[in-house]
Amino acid sequence: MPNADVFSVSVPIVLRPITNGAKRVCPATDWSRPITTSSADETGVDNLLTVATDSRPVDLEFELLGWPPDGPKLQLDYRRFSYAGKFVMTNTGKAVARDGDELVAAVAFNEDRTDADQLWLRYVTVDRERRGDGIGPELLRFARDRAVERGYNRLRIAVNNPFAYEALYRSGFAYTGETTGIAELVLEYPRPDDGGDGVDFGDETDGEGRSARARYQAGLAEFRDRELSDAELDFLDARRDSDPPAPDSSGARSSEGI
Question: Could you tell me which residues belong to the region Disordered (predicted)?
């Protein structure tokens, strides 16, 4: 995995009002915050925390293109998007983000083979020149909310790097304690009930906050045993013993637990 420098930058992002239906425009927000970043490319899920130094206002429209197993074929430019070949398959649902007439991000998803109430987010990709505009996490939240509206009671995604892990936490997901056959960490939404699923996350499981922290730290510990870039190692050191990042307001559980 290539090395990448870590830096902190304040990124002003301007988002526009929401519209109803299968299309959505980001809610009006104007904020700036430091984000740790890496330029390393990732597998399955783009590095969603990459921050561009030439930050630009984002005016995005999100659109659901179809549900599995009858999703559309989506042609992406392999020079701009990672995993472009995965989006031509028609057995996955898809959602996209557009800036005007330009497609800038996409996510593909399919139902679990044994549980029709569970949806897997398989591939997430952002235009290489637009990484750092906050598009990836926003698209994930859009797809998440549409899936919940459709009746799925659980969403899952597998990641293989700490940057994507952190971005998914910010989108309301949490580590399940499970890994795939290729050592990817599985996260799910809604966040698993702390201490209630039989997974041992260590001693800190005696309260809601401490249990959530132990769950988050258990996932980070999985990455520490792997060959990582300098940027990833620095990021893990910075997050040692910290609480999990809070999800955005739309990522909080409703009274129905979804």
Answer: 193-214, 234-258
